[in-house]
Write a structure and sequence with these properties.
- By secondary structure, this protein is mainly β.
- It contains seven helices and 97 strands.
- A hairpin with a 2-residue loop joins strand 78 and strand 79.
- The radius of gyration is 56 Å and the shape is elongated.
- The N and C termini lie far apart (143 Å).
Length: 1364
């Protein structure tokens, strides 16, 4: 062996190369090839390959280990062949190079790098848009590698573009958009792509693409018809539905919410109206086909997008007078595109596909429509929805879009007429596909609570999700995807309520007011979505428990209870149980019952158990004393709310009273000559029981041999002749028995004197001595209330009785009369219980001889409900602050009813067209309380009508107007109109140059909305000033020739309102300073613009030069003018009454006057300082609103926290203070100015305004802003009156000054701010001025007197540097 190896180099020069091929994966012992050589003895490999073995004896090369081409495709080894030299000749060993090529077999499948790829494409991408896809890799070679790509599932507008990679015969692919996308048609595609190699058999791999189509706002509302042609009978009542227009918008959310409107010019008569939400057109006036057989309307449909789209449709209404209408089928798909319905293949059986509204304008059987759905094998059915003409198409079988994606069905509507009318409607339903995925919330479910009275915007919980990604992929956006009301047993009830979530922080807050009685628990589904592309999301549940607030009154099961109880019921007997419920929960729900104080009699007879509502008797009942009781029962909850009901207790009568005779003994006289059957007298008994218990019958128990008695009337008459009986007294015992069981009875004595004319009194005798009559106040005039009867014992005059009424009051005389012969008492005028309830008078019976008998009459007028409730005022007006708590009592209205008992019980009701009144009216007390929170900025007053009525006759009522004004509170801070202001300023500007206005607004009103501006202290704030009232920013120094002018200044402006407490906000103001050179550069850029004409360029140069020249001249003039003036000027003593004259203000004070802007002098107010010090100004000086400067002000105490400087002026006569808001020093007080609009006071002989008190830029010689800056009010002389802020003459003549001062010493230039604008003040030392309107300019008129608007004179005279 060693020799062979040593001889190998010698053999290699003549080495033979042999190549063999073997398939990969060949099993062991597979023969690769044979090295056959004649005379060969042995075959010895010199290199070792573990996959193959060489047979040393025969030279066979066989597989030891199965080769893998993908691991190694070529093997090389050297085999030395040694020959057998025992024969004829000797042969040297031969080296053979063996090359084994491993050939490929298809043992590898193509492999996609990702099996699932989600992606998002906007629907606006053009056709041809390509998306590169990762190729499938195959380790095999040639045709065994990846050869083809194919979409194997998913109907989509995409196709695959296949490209050869240029090596190894493999291919890549791109996804290309073949058709335009439309999200409204389909918003999601699932595409399955398969990659196959070229082997046999072929191997493959799959990849799924999930493509989401993103929306753009590209749809306008579309009506489901191009024109509507409804018909309606001409006798259709107002409110009849004419038709329903339906427009749909394929966009989502607010962009798809549609509002309908009838164009007013097509509905000038107002005969039709449309529901803005549903599109239902209804009749609002009377139709007449003969007058107008048709009406043409135009309906506008507008979506609710940020930039709303709109469309119109014509509605042609035909007025019919016959029944000729065919049913109309109006399907509305839950999702549709181009009138093709869309339904998800994941829909379950019973899910709605569309709502179908079938309209037939006929009535009765002709308007009863049956709807059927036809379509062979269609997995849909039609079902009835509700009681109207609504139907729904719902899924009735499984859907499979891959099997069939479109269904064509048709609807048939057939009415009940004879012959019936049939309508058909073809509809197409397309089946569409479905998706999922999520960041991780810290909790799978959150639980929180919120009060039902929580304001809109109240934060309730914060949800937090985390994302393990970084950067934008970990930026989480939160949103609420659904809001569900969980009713009892967690049943989902979809009721509208609003919540909002901060998309960045995850803080959830209320978006509307909540009613716990409508929903106790609310489930929010919150989504956290990251910022990746495509994004991933997850969801969590938030359970919100609503905490109850006592906002519901208890309600009784019945508004009125009626019960019957026997009058013998024992004390404590259960009469009735009333029951009330309260929608509130928790500790507020238990109720307490009580009987109200309306009827004291009822309260003394009945009690109620506070916890159970059981009404029991508390004293004995007596039907004869009171037949019924009316109670008002009240139920209170623990929160102070109450409800009431009325209870009527009827008393059942028992026979517990015996008949009672009106007299214990009756006496009568009778002539012995009377015949049998002569009426003697009448006994009368009454029984207070009712029914048969009160029916009385009479009988004679004793002494009845000569007399009989009528058992019903009680009339006693003779039964035999009494002839011969003289001076005889007969005694009868008469019994009265009632009809009860057992019977009750009583007796009376009747004494009858039988005699002659000389022995008996023969005056007429009434059948009863006392008549009691109950009559209703509603009786008509002329009604007979009762009839009296009397007889004369004298048989000769028994038929000639005359009746009269005596002892009448004035009311009775005007109300009743009696029939002279008949005895019938009738009414002569209407009755009114509220005016007179009882009448008492006497009836006399007189015979022909003038003998008189008398009986008393008592008339009781019973009540009927004939009076309306009357309010204590014709109208009511109340005021309430907007921050009043819910439930607080706002107002009390009172009405009374003159009727009695239940007829006089007043109830209250709000009658208003407004459905969202924030007030609750107690129906029994008239108390108005706050039901929901007020907002002055939303609504400043409410006006509604309150009705007072009686529940017996609810239509008998009176109404009054109630107006409640909402008072503003300072609940809105002033806000600047911009978040940042940027102004420009020339570096050559003077002082008091306007730069710009930092304007703010305040939603409040009054002083709460008045805004004041100040500059916050900064490094450069002293260089600028801001107008206190307008926010106008001006320079406070001269910028020209300053060496320290910066390129930019940052100021901070604070705006504050005058509310208590005051609210404020700040804004940053940047002032960029431009040099003259920069302006020139800008001009050069403008002039270099080729678009400008030569003439325009010359004009620009001219005006720029003029501006610069004027600026230089003005600077020089002001500098000269200032140098010639004294810095400080003194006030001259003007009256001996003044102890001292205040020294002039230093220049710093005059400069700060500009910062104050228009300071309203003469108004007493201290609102500008946060904690103003108060003082009293002596010697007719007044405390000024703009600050606290007055001459001779005593020392005042200031708190350290409120003081920046207490010695602003060096002179001890002047003390002032600055608040932390850096208010500038105030201007001085002017003498004798008060807070009245017209200054009616007596000043000193000469009133002065020192020129030194004015800022230098406001010198009278320069400008005329004195009156406009200080807003000084006019003063009237003693011959004038102040009306409407003006002085009016009350006698002939011209005003000559203030009070009684001489004309020569008056100062009367004071003018209202809005009347003085661009005035020019002349500087003549002795001149008269006239203010001419409307030019508003002052002109010098030396040597003559002129009047100002013929109402006042103005004279200015220069004296000691002051104008007087």
């Amino acid at each position: 062996m060693i020799l062979l190896l040593l001889s190998l180099p010698l053999l290699s020069s003549s080495m033979e190369e042999v190549e063999f091929r073997v398939e990969e994966n060949s099993p062991p012992r597979t023969l690769v090839g044979t090295l056959q050589r004649p005379g060969a003895a042995t075959f010895t490999p010199t290199t070792s390959v573990e996959e193959f073995r060489v047979d040393r004896k025969f030279g066979d090369i066989r597989v030891v280990l199965s080769p893998d081409r993908e691991s190694r495709d070529r093997y090389e080894m050297t085999v030395v062949i040694v020959f057998d030299n025992s024969g004829e000749g000797s042969r040297t060993p031969q080296a053979v190079s063996v090359v084994i090529i491993v050939t490929d077999v298809n043992d590898n499948s193509p492999q996609f790098p990702r099996k699932l790829i989600p992606m998002t494409i906007t629907e606006s991408q053009p056709v041809g848009f390509r998306i590169p896809l990762d190729p499938a890799e195959d380790a095999d070679l040639g045709t065994n590698s990846t050869q083809t790509y194919e979409i194997v599932s998913g109907d989509s507008p995409f196709r695959l573009e296949q490209q050869k990679l240029g090596f190894d015969d493999q291919y890549s692919c791109n996804l290309e958009l073949e058709q335009s996308l439309d999200r409204e048609y389909k918003d999601f595609y699932v595409i399955e792509i398969i990659a196959r190699d070229g082997g046999n058999p072929s191997k493959s791999d799959k990849m799924t693409l999930q493509i989401k189509v993103a929306d753009v706002n590209d749809n306008t509302p579309q009506f489901n018809q191009s024109i509507y042609r409804p018909s309606i009978l001409e006798d259709a009542p107002v409110g009849s539905v004419v038709c329903t227009v339906l427009a749909t918008d394929n966009d989502k959310g607010d962009n798809a919410k549609i509002t309908y409107l009838i164009e007013p010019r097509f509905n000038r008569d107002g005969l039709f109206s449309i529901d803005p939400d549903t599109g239902i057109i209804s009749l609002s006036g009377s139709l007449d086909r003969e007058t107008a057989p048709s009406h043409e309307l135009v309906v506008r449909a507008t979506d609710n997008g940020e930039f709303p789209e709109r469309t119109t449709v014509r509605v042609s209404v035909t007025v019919l007078d016959v029944n000729d209408n065919t049913p109309q089928i109006n399907p509305t798909f839950l999702a549709q595109e181009d009138e093709v319905g869309m339904v998800s293949e994941a829909s379950e059986i019973g899910d709605y596909v569309a709502h179908v509204n079938v309209n037939d304008l006929d009535t009765g059987d002709n308007g009863q429509v049956q709807l059927q759905l036809h379509g062979e094998g269609a997995p849909f059915e039609i079902v009835k929805v509700g009681l109207g003409s609504g139907y729904a198409i719902q899924v009735s079988g499984p859907l499979d879009r891959e099997s069939r994606d479109t269904w064509h069905v048709w609807l048939e509507a057939r009415d009940g007429g004879s012959p019936s009318r049939v309508a058909h409607r073809n509809i197409t339903v397309r089946v569409v596909d479905v998706n999922d995925c999520a960041p991780v919330f810290e909790e799978a479910m959150y639980r929180c609570n919120v009060s039902e009275i929580a304001e809109k915007g109240t934060d309730i919980v914060k949800v937090t999700a985390t994302d393990r990604d970084l950067g934008v992929n970990a930026e989480i956006t939160y949103s609420i995807v659904s809001i569900t009301n969980l009713g009892q047993n967690n049943v989902e009830l979809h009721t509208p309520i609003s919540f909002s979530i901060n998309s960045k922080t995850g803080v959830i807050s209320t978006g509307s007011q909540i009613d716990r009685e409508a929903r106790e628990t609310i489930k929010l589904t919150v989504q956290a979505q990251d910022g990746g592309n495509p994004s991933l999301s997850s969801r969590s549940s938030v359970i919100v428990d609503i905490i109850d607030y006592n906002d519901n009154d208890p309600r009784f099961a019945q508004r009125h209870y009626t019960t019957l109880v026997s009058e013998d019921a024992e004390i404590g007997h259960e009469v009735l149980t009333v029951h009330a419920t309260d929608a509130d929960a928790g500790g507020l729900a238990p109720l307490t019952y009580s009987i109200k104080e309306y009827y004291s009699a009822a309260r003394s007879v009945f009690t109620i158990e506070p916890e159970t509502g059981v009404i029991r008797t508390s004293s004995d009942l007596d039907y004869e004393q009171q037949k019924s009781y009316n109670l008002v029962v009240e139920a209170h909850d623990n929160g102070g709310r109450r409800g009431v009901t009325s209870v009527e207790v009827l008393i059942r009568d028992l026979n517990d009273n015996s008949p009672q005779f009106l007299q214990a003994t009756y006496r009568a006289s009778l002539l012995h000559t009377v015949l049998p059957g002569t009426l003697v007298t009448r006994v009368s008994a009454f029984d207070v029981d009712a029914g048969l218990n009160g029916v009385v019958s009479y009988s004679i128990l004793q002494g009845g041999e000569m007399f009989t008695i009528d058992p019903k009337t009680g009339f006693i008459s003779t039964s035999v002749s009494l002839h011969g009986m003289t001076n005889v007294t007969e005694r009868l015992i008469v019994q009265a028995v009632d009809g009860g069981s057992p019977q009750q009875s009583s007796v009376c004595n009747v004494l009858i004197l039988i005699g002659s004319l000389s022995t008996i009194d023969l005056k007429p005798i009434f059948t009863s001595q006392d008549y009691n009559v109950d009559i209703a106040e509603s009786l008509d005039t002329g009604h007979v209330i009762t009839t009296v009867f009397a007889r004369s014992p004298d048989p000769d005059y028994s038929g000639s009785i005359k009746y009269t009424i005596s002892k009448l009051t004035r009311q009775a005389r005007e109300t009743f009369t009696i029939g002279e012969d008949s005895g019938r008492i009738t009414t002569t005028s209407p009755l009114d219980r509220e005016v007179e309830q009882f009448y008492n008078f006497v009836v006399e019976a007189t015979d022909e001889l003038g003998r008189q008998g008398m009986a008393s009459i008592e008339v009781t007028v019973t009540d009927i409900n004939d009076n309306k409730a009357k309010f204590s005022a014709a109208s009511y007006h109340f005021s309430v602050k907007e921050n009043l708590d819910k439930g607080a009592v706002v107002a009390q209205i009172t009405a009374s009813d003159l009727d009695y008992g239940i007829n006089g019980l007043v109830q209250y009701l709000i009658v208003s067209e407004e459905s969202d009144l924030p007030f609750h009216l107690d129906s029994y007390t008239g108390s108005i309380s706050l039901y929901s929170h007020l907002d002055f900025e939303t609504k400043t007053y409410y006006q509604f009508t309150v009705r007072a009525f009686n529940k017996v006759t609810p239509d008998f009522y009176q109404e009054t107007a109630v107006q409640i004004s909402v008072l503003d509170v300072n609940d809105n801070a002033p806000l600047f109109v911009k978040s940042h202001f940027n102004f420009n300023l020339l570096d050559s500007s003077l002082d008091n140059v306007a730069i710009g206005v930092a304007m703010a607004t305040d939603a409040d009103s009054g002083i709460n909305g008045e805004i004041y501006y100040t500059l916050q202290p900064t490094v450069n704030s002293h260089l600028f000033q801001v107008d206190l009232r307008t926010g106008e920013i001006r320079t406070a120094v001269v910028f020209a020739n300053r060496a320290d002018v910066q390129e930019q200044y940052d100021l901070k402006v604070l705006c504050r309102d005058r509310g208590v407490p005051s609210l404020n906000s700040t804004v940053l103001v940047t002032v960029d300073v431009l040099s003259t050179g920069e302006v020139v550069d800008i001009l050069q850029q403008v002039l270099s613009n080729d678009a400008l004409s030569r003439k325009a360029k010359y004009l620009i140069i001219f005006f720029a030069s003029a501006f610069l020249f004027s600026t230089v001249i003005l600077v020089c003039f002001i500098k000269y003018h200032r140098d010639s003036k004294s810095k400080y000027k003194n006030l001259a003593q003007v009256d001996r009454k003044y102890d001292s004259v205040p020294p002039p203000l230093p220049k710093k004070s005059t400069e700060n006057l500009m910062s104050l802007g228009r300071c309203e002098m003469g108004l007493s107010s201290d609102t500008l300082l946060s904690k103003p010090a108060r003082s009293t100004c002596s010697n007719n000086y007044k405390f000024v609103e703009c600050g606290s400067y007055c001459p001779s002000i005593p020392e005042r105490e200031f708190s350290q926290e409120n003081i920046i400087s207490t010695s602003f002026f060096s002179d001890n006569h002047h003390k002032t203070a600055l608040s932390k808001e850096s208010l500038p020093p105030p201007p001085p007080c002017l003498p004798n100015f008060s807070s009245k609009e017209c200054l009616n006071f007596n000043p000193p002989h000469v009133s002065r305004i020192p020129e030194s008190l004015l800022p230098e830029s406001h010198q009278i010689t320069s400008r005329s802003d004195l009156a406009s800056s200080y807003d000084l009010s006019p003063a009237c002389s003693n011959k004038h009156e102040c009306h409407d802020n003006r002085c009016h003459s009350n006698e002939s003549g011209v005003a000559s000054g203030l009070g009684s001062t001489p004309p020569t010493s008056e100062i009367n230039f004071l003018k209202k701010e809005h009347e003085m604008r661009k005035d020019s003040w002349m500087s003549s030392d002795d001149s008269l001025f006239k203010l001419k309107n409307p030019v508003s300019s002052l002109q010098s008129l030396p040597g003559q007197k002129v009047s100002l608007n013929d109402k006042r004179q103005v004279r200015f005279q220069k004296l000691n540097d002051s104008y007087v």
